[in-house]
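#struct-help
A.M.: can someone run this one for me? Single chain, 212 residues.
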Amino acid sequence: MVYEIVTRIIDIIVSIFAIIIFSPIMLITAILIMIDSKGPILADVPERVGRNYQPFKFYKFRSMVVSAHTMLKEDPKYSKLYKEYKKNSYKLKNDPRVTKVGKFIRKYSIDEFPQFFNILKGDMSLVGPRAYYFDELEYYISMNPEVEEDIAIITGIKPGLTGVWQISGRSEISFDKRIKIDLEYAKMRSIKRNIIILFKTPFAVFSKRGAY
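D.P.: on it. Structure tokens below:
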């Protein structure tokens, strides 16, 4: 109970501060996205898995062409790429759907800045497991039924803007490893550990390791 209250207070204070500090960067990013390609400023991605497996609208600057997620799954010309996407832990190293501005903002995690609004709303926390897509978790569970209980533990807490996997290599980490990391965090989370993760996050971002 104390953990929940303290974490929520920290989330509110830090997210408000971050929104104020990063507002010039977010404004410039929004303008560049509009100039670079047609489409909305925010990504039109499917809802993400929130606490207790509840769906929520995930805010993120658009770094890809419009309908990129649907295109990858349904367009026949991307069928080979979709197989590679699933094989590589739901990541693509040289993704043809990424725009010019998108490559830059993804490299420095600027595309993630709108998530401070998710945190302020209470959909997310500063630190937590990755905000998964429903389809990737459902597919993973269908292939590995024994992990269903582990997934329930992971999704029993709020997803985070950052977390252990983000400071450990991001896209270089396999999906199996990511699940194990998030499970371990969900079972062993603490205020002290969250603070350590938050301090390590800027170094992980600027190292650009696993950012693609």
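A.M.: thanks! Residues 2-207 form one domain.
D.P.: also worth noting: The radius of gyration is 17 Å.
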